[in-house]
Design a protein that fits this description.
Distance between the termini: 70 Å
Oligomer: single chain
CATH topology of the largest domain: ABC transporter transmembrane region fold
Structural class: alpha/beta
Number of domains: 2
Number of strands: 10
CATH class of the largest domain: Mainly Alpha
Bound molecules: adenosine-5'-triphosphate, magnesium ion
Shape: elongated
Helix content: 55-70%
Strand order of the largest sheet: 6-7-8-3-9-10
Radius of gyration: 37 Å
Largest sheet: 6 strands, mixed
């Protein structure tokens, strides 16, 4: 068994019971399936008045003679019935028995499906859930490299593919072999000679069919990949719609899109055509074998010495016909598994990605914050080049430290490191003298409130957006937080107040309103440390004043790292750090830095001139 299947079986484990019930139902189904054909043999015998008559009650002589005993018993019973009530009564009896057998066969078929449904849906849910948990757990860096649409494709269509191909195949691999074994035994009992003859043909047929499936896996993988490209592109288009329209870039993007759908079309043509070849090919080969059997079996019937009666032979052909579908299913399982394997590989690639931001082995749970944050000789680069180098900074408890400096100097990077979205390459960051790599991620992030440079909001109500970081936040607490963030007034003017849905990414709100909501969210969490990456530069003076005021209220009595673009906003900070190309250029209070006439003074002058 291959690796991917093994891993998938792990997901089936909790639903083992349903699997077992499915197997039991399938065994019974296969049994009644065979019986439903065998029962016709004596019927035919009666119709053609060819039935062997048995007048003495047969005696059971052990397992080896089971067939003869069963046959004789049935014949004895029928002979009696014909003798007592006439052949019509015997026929009615056989018909009733067949109805019951057919009913049971189909009942068990239904039950097998019924139980399998729980296994299927349970497995799909568990795979999707673990993918979701994994995606949420993976570090931010993972997503700068991966395309979102590709992830979506893996979580939806790849899971669907695994469901339809692998789970169906697992069933086929259980049910069909059972049917085949039972049918083969019955066939052997009817005529060993004929069955040996059949045995020569079946493997040849199977071999031809499976040869067709060889290339299918590679093609399916290509198809799923293209599907990812396609979804990524769609996702980007939807988020960038404003820019696309504004730049009249519809044509350019449509071209990229249709190129992708064209490639997908070509791959799928080939996949579907190859797959489509499976059924016709196996049916044709199957019929060829049946006809050969018909010819050989017919000659045995004509041969008086062979002992093969016409009704036996007809039953035999019936049995043989029931074996064709299972054999066909088993050979097509090969394609399905190959297709499913490709999808499974893509799923496990995500599930098995190692989280580079490791949870410590013996994590320290840190509940409160007493002394300060300490950056010790930190060097860090997103890729090869270092973005921060030899960065040293102490932020004492209760202080506000502002980071300023030109765009790209590494300010947001500092925020990314202290929250452990990324890990430092060299040096360390310590909170109360504990390396943050030794603190559990949950308790570390529990200490911090985060307002990011671009407000990240969810397609949900105002209330739920503010309440994100606090479970069971009361209505009053939410309103209180919104008031501190200067958001209450505008929220009250929204059509449904706190229950208003703010649209995708908060697009129904203005830039300043979005920011005030993200500030309210951080205020409600009420953490001892605040990390603010402000983007006030995008705001008009009125909303800037509101946001600024909100930030000041929030930072009161807290330890804050503020990344500021408007220098007027951080004049009261305890310490201002001027950054340039990942290094600290100078550090001090506003007054001190204005005297030093280095970078800070220049920055201030530039902003006042503008
Ligand atoms: N995810 C990333 N992958 C690779 N490089 C990155 C990534 N994020 C930022 N960088 C690079 O790191 C450097 C510092 O970026 P950072 O976001 O810290 O700048 P910043 O000081 O916050 O700038 P701004 O004032 O414009 O927000 C930049 O040169 C940027 O190109
Ligand atoms: Mg930034």
């Amino acid at each position: 068994m291959n690796n991917i299947l093994k891993k998938l079986l792990r997901f089936a484990k909790p639903y083992k019971l349903y699997g077992i019930l499915n197997i039991i139902s399938n065994v019974l189904y296969a049994f009644f399936n065979v019986l439903s054909i065998i029962i016709f043999i004596p019927t035919l015998g009666i119709l053609f008045d060819n039935q062997e008559e048995v007048f003495e009650k047969p005696v059971y002589q052990g397992f080896s003679n089971l067939k003869g005993y069963a046959e004789d018993s049935l014949n004895y019973f029928l002979t009696q019935k014909v003798a007592d009530d006439g052949p019509m009564a015997a026929l009615v009896f056989i018909c009733l028995a067949s109805i019951v057998i057919f009913f049971l066969k189909n009942l068990f078929r239904y039950m097998a499906m019924y139980f399998l449904a729980f296994l299927r849906t349970g497995m799909v849910k568990d795979i999707q859930d673990s993918l979701y948990h994994k995606v949420v757990d993976l570090p931010i860096s993972f997503f700068s490299e991966k395309r979102k649409g590709d992830l979506l494709a893996r979580m939806t269509s790849d899971v669907k593919e695994v469901e339809s191909s692998i789970i169906n195949s697992l069933e086929a691999l259980v049910r069909e072999p059972i049917t085949i074994v039972i049918v083969l035994i019955s066939m052997l009992l009817i005529s060993a000679k004929l069955t040996l003859f059949v045995f020569i043909f079946l493997p040849i047929t199977g071999f031809i069919i499976s040869a067709v499936g060889k290339r299918l896996k590679a093609q399916s993988l290509a198809a799923q990949k293209e599907n990812g490209v396609f979804l990524s592109f769609l996702e980007e288009t939807l988020t960038g719609l404003k820019v696309i329209k504004g730049f009249n870039a519809e044509g350019k993007l449509a071209k990229k899109f249709t190129d992708s759908t064209e490639r997908f079309k070509n791959i799928m043509n080939s996949v579907l055509q190859r797959k489509g070849l499976a059924s016709p090919l196996s049916e044709f080969l199957g019929v060829a074998v049946v006809i050969t059997v018909l010819w050989y079996g017919g000659s045995l019937v004509f041969d008086e010495n062979s002992g093969l009666k016409p009704q036996d032979f007809m039953g035999y052909i019936g049995l043989f016909y029931t074996i064709i579908n299972p054999v066909k299913a088993i050979t097509t399982v090969n394609y399905s598994i190959k297709k499913g394997n490709a999808a499974g590989e893509r799923i496990f690639e995500i599930l098995e990605t190692e989280n580079s931001i490791k949870e410590p082995v013996n994590p320290t749970e840190i509940k409160k914050f007493d002394m300060g944050i300490d950056f010790k000789n930190v060097s860090f680069g997103y890729e090869n080049e270092n973005v921060l180098e030899g960065f040293n900074l102490k932020v004492n408890k209760g202080h506000t430290v502002a980071l300023v400096g030109q765009s790209g100097s590494g300010k947001s990077t500092v925020a990314n490191l202290v929250t452990r979205f990324y890990d430092v390459n060299e040096g360390s960051i310590e909170i109360d003298d504990i390396n943050i790599k030794d603190i559990s991620k949950k308790s570390l992030r529990g200490l911090m409130g985060l307002v990011t440079q671009d407000s990240i909001l969810f397609n949900d109500s105002v209330k739920n957006n503010i309440g994100l970081g606090k479970t069971n936040a009361t209505e009053e607490e939410i309103v209180e937080a919104a008031k501190i963030a200067n958001a209450h007034d505008f929220i009250m003017e929204l059509p449904e107040g706190y229950n208003t849905n703010i649209g995708d990414g908060g697009n129904k709100l203005s830039g300043g309103q979005k920011q005030r909501l993200s500030i309210a969210r951080a205020v409600l969490k009420n953490p001892p440390i605040m990390i603010l990456d402000e983007a006030t530069s995008a705001l008009d003076t009125e909303s800037e004043r509101l946001v600024q005021d909100a930030l000041e209220k929030m930072m009161r009595n807290r330890t804050s790292i503020v990344i500021a673009h408007r220098l007027s906003t951080i004049q009261n900070a305890d310490s201002i750090v001027v950054m340039s190309k990942g290094k600290i250029l100078e550090q001090g209070t506003h007054q001190e830095l204005m005297k030093s006439k280095k970078g800070y003074k220049k920055l201030v002058e530039m902003q006042t001139m503008a």
